[in-house]
Design a protein that fits this description.
The structure holds three protein chains of three kinds. Chain A is mainly alpha-helical. Helix content of chain A is 86%, strand content 0%. The termini of chain A are far apart. The two termini of chain C are 29 Å apart. In chain C, helix 3 packs across helix 4. Among the domains of chain C are: 63 residues, Orthogonal Bundle (Helicase, Ruva Protein, domain 3), CATH 1.10.8.640; 28 residues. The chains are: A mainly alpha, B alpha+beta, C mainly alpha. Chains in contact: A-B, A-C, B-C.
C-alpha cells in the first residue's frame, strides 16, 4: 500500500512536468505579446493619458481645479495621447517602409536569379 | 497515512528544486516548453502539500500520538475541531501551513501573470519557487511536523489553553498568510528586474494588485489579532507593542507605503527605482517578522519556543536582501523615471512624504524592538522598551500620517496652485478647528486627544467633501441622488475605494484615541452580594460557579449590571486554570456599545469567597472593530479592475488608419 | 471674499448644514471623562509602566501571573504610604534592575533610545525636501519625443476629439 502510494506520488508529478516538454504545446502556440514591446508601452501610456483626462474632468466637476489648471492638465494629457498616436503611426509606417524594402529586395533577387538562369 | 504525508513532502521538495532550476533556465534560454513544464510543476506542488497537510490533520483528529508534533500540541481532552488550530500552533506545523497556503496563493498569482506578463512570469516563478524551496527545506531537514516518535505516549501534552478560542481559528492563519503574501508583489517586481522588464512599468498593474491583496491580508490579520487580544486575553487592551506584534506591523507599514507610491508610478512613470527598493524592503521586513516570530532574541508572549530556527530565518533574510539589492543595482539603469516632478506641492510629493513617514514609523518600531539587544551589547544593561515608549514616540508620527491622509487626496496631480489649494482645504480646515472647539467645550481637554480628534475631523471632511461634490455634480446632470452616488463610486473605483478605506482608518483612529486617553479601570475586592460602581455602571457580584474539567478548573463569576438606573443584564467573566501548563486564562465579559465598552474580568478568586475583579470602561472601542468590514469592502472596490476597453489596440489602429489617410494626402503635398 | 461667491449656493448651504449636524452629534457623544480616584489612576499608570520580571514583555497591569498581582499590591501600598511615582519605580529598579521599567531611562544609554526617533523625523523631513528639490531639477533622462509640430498637433487633436476621447475610452466623461 505504502509502496504503491509512494510510486504514485513520485510518478504523477514527474509525468505532469514531462508532458509539456514532450508535447511541446507551449512552443507551438502563438507567441504572446511581449509586455515590453513598443505596442504594450504605448498602450500603457495611452491608458495613463486617458486616466489623466478622466481625473482632470472629475477634479473639475468637483471644483478642485480652476479653469486655468484644468486646461493646462487637459493639454498635457491630450499631448501625451497625441504622442502615442504619432508613435503608433510612425511604428506602423516604419513597418510599412520595412515591408516595402523587403519586397523590393525579394523582387530584385528574383530578377537577378531569373536573369542569370 | 503519516508515511504518505512524509513522502508527499519529499516529492514536493524535489519538485520545487526542479521548478526553480527549470523556471529560471526557461526564462534565460527563452524556452517556452521549459517554462510550461516548470509552471505545471509548480501547480502540482499544491496537491502534494495538501496531502501532507491532510495527513497531519488526520493524525490530530485520530489522536495519533506516535507523531511527535501531535503529541506536543494536542491531547485527548482537546475538542476535535481544534485540530485545525493545533495544526499551525507549533513551529513545524506553522511552516507547513505557510508552505501550503503560499503554494496556493502563488499558483493563482502565477496563472494571472503568465497571461499578463508572459516574459516576466518565468523569472517571477523562479523567485516564488525559491521562497517555497526555503520553507520545504526547513520542514524536511529541521522541523518536520510528520516526524515520528520512537515511543508512543498515551496522551499528548495538549494545546496551549490560550489558543482555545474561536479567534484562533482565523487570526494566526491570517497573520502568517499576510507575512508570506508579501512575497507575491516581491516576486513580480524582482522577476521583472531579472527579466530586464522593469523599466517601462510593465509590472505595475500586477504589482499594485498583488500588493493590495497582500496589504488586505496583513491588515485583516492585525485587526483580528487586536480584536482577539481584547476579547480573550483579559487585560482590556488590544495592542501591546510586543515584538511579534511589531514584526507584523512593520511589513504592513511598508506595504501601505508601497500601494500608494505604485499609483504614482502607474500614473506618471515616476518612483520607478523607489518602488523596487520599497518592495524589497517590505519583503525583508516580512522575513524579519518571521524571524522574530520563531524565537528571535527578543522575548515575546507570542513566539514559538525554538530559538535556533530563528537564526536561519535571519540569515536567509540577510541573503535575500543582499541578492535583491545586487540585482537592483545591476538593473539600475533601466529604471529612470519617465515623468518629472512639476511642483513641490502636488499629489506626487505628498505621496513621497507619506512614504517616508511610513518608513520612519517602521524604523522607529524596529528601533524600539531591537533596542534591548543594542543596550545590552553596548552597555551591558538590558533596557526594556514597552508600550509607554512606543505610544509616546509613534503616536505623534501616526497623527501626522492621518493628517497627510486627509489632505493628500485633495491635492491634484502635478501641481497645486495657491488659489485652488485654499479652496480645497477650506472646508477640511474649518471642520478640523470646529471639531477641536466642540470637543474642548464638551470637556475633552487632553491636548493629544483634542489634536487627534481635530485631525480626524480634517480627514473625514476631506473625504465627505469629495463625495458630496462629486455626487452633487452628477445629480445636476440629471441623476437621482442615490444613483449619482453609486455611479460616482463605480466610475472611479480605485479613488473612491481608497476613500472608503481612509474612512475606516479614521474610525480606527477615533477608537484608538478615545480608548487610549479615556479608558478607566478599577480593581476591586468583592464578596458575593457586594456592589461596586465605575462611572455610570453599577455591578453586583452574585457568586462564583466552579466547574472541573479533565484539564482545567473553570471559575465563572455571575454579575448583575446596571447602567445608571437601567438594568442591563447578567455578565459572566470567567477564569480557567490549567494545572499542567500552569497558565490561567481569563475571559472578560464585555457589554459593548458604539459609545463605550464596559468590561469585567476576574483577577483572582481567593478563599473565603473573596475575589478580585477589574472593571474597565473603554470608550469607542466598537469603532475599531466596525472599521474592519468597511476597510475590506473599500479595498475590494479599489481592486476591481477597470473593464478594460477591449481591443484598445484595435481602437488605436483604427485611429491611426484615419490619420494614415490624412498622411497619404499630405505626403503627396510634400509637407513637413 | 470672492472665493465664497464662486461656490454654488445650494451645495454650500447643504455642506454647512451637514457639518453643523455632525458637530452637534459629536458634542452630544462627548462625555466628560469618568472620575476615578487619584489613587486608582496613579496605580494604574504605574502598573502600566512596570514590567513583570518573569513574564516576557508584559506589564504588571497586563499579566495575570501571581508575581504580577503581588507587585501590584506593593505599588498600591507604597502609593497609599505617600511615596511618589519615581520613588515607587526606584524601589523596583533596586530589586530587579532597570530592565523592569517599560521605557528606557532618560539618562545614560536610555537617552539614545529617546533621541533616535525625533532625530529620525528630522532626517526624514530633510530627505523629503532634498528629494523633492532634486526631482524637480532633474530632467527626465529618457529621450522622449516631446514635441509635436503644429501640423501634427492639429491633425492628431482633431482625430482625438472626433473619435478617441469623446467615447467610452473615457468613461469618466459622464463623471
Amino acid at each position: 500500500m505504502l509502496v504503491f502510494a509512494s510510486i504514485v506520488l513520485c510518478i504523477v508529478p514527474a509525468l505532469v512536468v514531462l508532458y509539456p516538454l514532450v508535447r511541446k504545446i507551449a512552443s507551438k502556440s502563438p507567441l504572446p505579446e511581449d509586455e515590453s514591446s513598443l505596442n504594450a508601452d504605448l498602450e500603457r501610456r495611452w491608458e495613463s493619458a486617458v486616466d489623466g483626462l478622466q481625473s482632470a474632468e472629475l477634479e473639475k466637476s468637483l471644483g478642485n481645479l480652476q479653469e486655468e489648471d484644468y486646461r493646462w492638465l487637459r493639454d498635457i494629457h491630450m499631448n501625451e495621447a497625441a504622442l502615442v498616436l504619432k508613435a503608433m503611426d510612425l511604428s506602423e509606417s516604419d513597418e510599412i517602409e520595412m515591408m516595402k524594402k523587403v519586397n523590393d529586395e525579394i523582387a530584385r533577387t528574383k530578377i537577378q536569379s531569373g536573369g542569370t538562369e | 497515512m503519516v508515511e504518505i504525508g512524509q513522502i508527499s513532502l519529499v516529492a514536493a521538495f524535489i519538485l520545487v528544486v526542479y521548478v526553480t532550476i527549470v523556471g529560471f533556465a526557461g526564462g534565460v534560454l527563452n524556452g517556452r516548453d521549459l517554462v510550461a513544464s516548470a509552471r505545471w510543476g509548480f501547480y502540482s506542488v499544491v496537491p502534494l502539500l495538501l496531502i501532507a497537510t491532510s495527513a497531519l490533520i488526520y493524525a490530530f483528529v485520530n489522536n495519533d500520538f506516535s507523531v511527535a508534533y501531535v503529541a506536543e500540541n494536542s491531547n485527548l481532552a482537546m475538542p476535535r475541531i481544534y485540530a485545525w488550530v493545533a495544526f499551525y500552533s507549533g513551529n513545524a506545523g506553522s511552516l507547513l501551513y505557510i508552505a501550503v497556503a503560499f503554494s496556493i496563493m502563488a499558483s493563482i498569482c502565477l496563472k494571472v501573470i503568465t497571461k499578463k506578463l508572459p516574459y516576466t512570469a518565468p523569472y517571477a516563478l523562479g523567485v516564488m519557487s525559491m521562497v517555497l524551496l526555503f520553507f520545504l527545506a526547513v520542514i524536511l531537514f529541521l522541523a518536520n511536523p510528520l516526524e515520528k516518535l520512537t515511543v508512543t505516549p498515551a496522551d499528548g501534552q495538549g494545546i496551549n489553553p490560550l489558543l482555545i478560542h474561536f479567534g484562533m481559528f482565523i487570526h494566526p492563519p491570517f497573520q502568517m498568510l499576510g507575512l508570506i503574501s508579501v512575497a507575491l508583489p516581491y516576486s513580480v517586481a524582482v522577476g521583472a528586474l531579472l527579466a530586464g522588464r522593469g523599466g517601462r512599468d510593465e509590472w505595475v498593474d500586477q504589482g499594485r494588485m498583488w500588493g493590495m491583496v497582500s496589504w488586505l491580508i496583513l491588515t485583516v490579520g492585525l485587526l483580528l489579532g487586536s480584536w482577539w487580544a481584547y476579547t480573550i486575553l483579559g487585560w482590556g487592551g488590544y495592542w501591546a507593542w510586543d515584538p511579534v506584534e511589531n514584526s507584523a506591523l512593520m511589513p504592513w507599514l511598508a506595504m501601505t507605503a508601497f500601494v500608494h507610491s505604485i499609483m504614482v508610478q502607474k500614473r506618471r512613470g515616476m518612483f520607478r527605482m523607489w518602488n523596487m527598493v520599497l518592495v524589497i524592503i517590505s519583503f525583508t521586513m516580512a522575513q524579519l517578522g518571521m524571524f522574530i516570530n520563531r524565537g528571535g532574541p527578543v522575548p515575546s508572549v507570542h513566539s514559538f519556543a525554538e530559538s535556533t530556527m530563528g537564526w536561519i530565518f535571519l540569515a536567509v533574510m540577510g541573503l535575500t536582501l543582499f541578492v535583491s539589492l545586487v540585482i537592483f543595482v545591476i538593473r539600475y539603469d533601466t529604471l529612470k523615471s519617465r515623468g518629472r516632478l512639476e511642483s513641490m506641492i502636488s499629489r506626487e510629493s505628498a505621496f513621497l512624504a507619506q512614504n517616508i513617514l511610513f518608513l520612519l514609523i517602521a524604523f522607529v518600531t524596529l528601533w524600539g524592538t531591537v533596542f534591548p539587544i543594542f543596550s545590552e551589547a553596548v552597555d551591558e544593561t538590558t533596557m526594556t522598551v514597552g508600550q509607554p515608549f512606543f505610544n509616546k514616540v509613534n503616536g505623534p508620527l501616526m497623527l501626522l500620517l492621518i493628517l497627510l491622509m486627509g489632505v493628500a487626496p485633495l491635492l491634484p496631480w502635478r501641481r497645486a496652485t495657491g488659489k485652488s489649494l485654499a479652496r480645497m482645504l477650506r472646508i477640511p480646515v474649518v471642520s478640523g478647528l470646529s471639531v477641536a472647539a466642540i470637543v474642548l467645550i464638551a470637556g475633552i481637554s487632553q491636548p493629544w486627544a483634542v489634536a487627534s480628534f481635530a485631525i480626524c475631523g480634517v480627514a473625514v471632511s476631506g473625504v465627505l467633501q469629495e463625495w458630496g461634490r462629486g455626487t452633487f455634480s452628477r445629480h445636476r446632470r440629471g441623476e437621482g441622488w442615490p444613483r449619482a452616488f453609486l455611479n460616482l463610486l463605480n466610475a472611479n473605483r480605485p479613488r473612491y475605494g481608497g476613500y472608503i478605506v481612509h474612512l475606516a482608518i479614521i474610525m480606527l483612529g477615533v477608537g484608538i484615541t478615545a480608548s487610549s486617553f479615556y479608558s478607566v479601570q478599577r480593581d476591586v475586592v468583592m464578596q458575593p452580594g457586594d456592589t461596586e460602581t465605575l462611572g455610570k455602571y453599577t455591578f453586583k457580584y452574585i457568586g462564583v460557579n466552579e466547574e472541573s474539567f479533565s484539564d482545567r478548573l473553570e471559575e465563572t463569576a455571575e454579575f448583575k449590571v446596571w447602567s445608571g438606573d437601567k438594568y442591563i443584564g447578567y455578565m459572566y467573566p470567567y477564569r480557567a486554570f490549567y494545572p499542567e501548563f500552569r497558565i490561567a486564562a481569563t475571559r472578560g465579559a464585555i457589554n459593548s456599545s458604539p459609545m463605550e465598552d464596559f468590561y469585567l474580568v476576574p483577577s483572582e478568586f481567593g478563599e473565603d469567597d473573596q475575589a478580585v475583579f477589574r472593571a474597565l470602561i473603554n470608550p469607542m472601542i466598537w469603532w475599531m472593530w466596525a472599521s474592519g468590514p468597511i476597510l475590506v469592502f473599500g479595498t475590494l472596490v479599489a481592486l476591481v479592475p477597470r473593464r478594460r476597453s477591449k481591443n484598445v489596440q484595435l481602437r488605436l489602429t483604427s485611429l491611426t488608419a484615419r490619420v494614415g489617410d490624412q498622411n497619404q494626402s499630405s505626403v503627396l503635398g510634400a509637407e513637413d | 471674499m470672492s472665493i465664497i461667491k464662486l461656490t454654488i449656493a445650494r451645495s454650500s448651504t447643504l455642506t454647512i448644514f451637514v457639518i453643523l449636524l455632525v458637530l452637534v452629534l459629536i458634542f452630544l457623544s462627548c462625555k466628560p471623562p469618568v472620575e476615578v480616584s487619584e489613587l486608582d489612576s496613579r496605580t494604574n499608570s504605574l502598573n502600566k509602566s512596570i514590567m513583570c520580571p518573569i513574564c516576557p514583555g508584559e506589564s504588571i497591569d497586563q499579566s495575570q501571573n501571581e508575581l504580577a498581582g503581588h507587585m501590584r499590591r506593593i505599588v498600591r501600598e507604597q502609593i497609599e504610604g505617600g511615596k511618589t511615582d519615581s520613588e515607587v519605580r526606584e524601589y523596583f529598579v533596586e530589586r530587579y534592575g532597570p530592565v523592569v521599567l517599560l521605557e528606557p531611562s532618560t539618562s545614560g544609554i536610555g537617552l539614545i533610545a529617546w533621541i533616535v526617533p525625533p532625530a529620525g523625523l528630522l532626517i526624514a523631513g530633510c530627505s523629503v525636501a532634498i528629494a523633492l528639490i532634486l526631482m524637480k531639477r532633474r530632467r527626465s533622462e529618457e529621450v522622449v519625443d516631446d514635441t509635436l509640430s503644429h501640423n501634427d498637433r492639429v491633425r492628431y487633436y482633431k482625430v482625438l476629439e472626433e473619435r478617441g476621447i469623446s467615447e467610452d475610452d473615457l468613461p469618466g466623461r459622464e463623471v
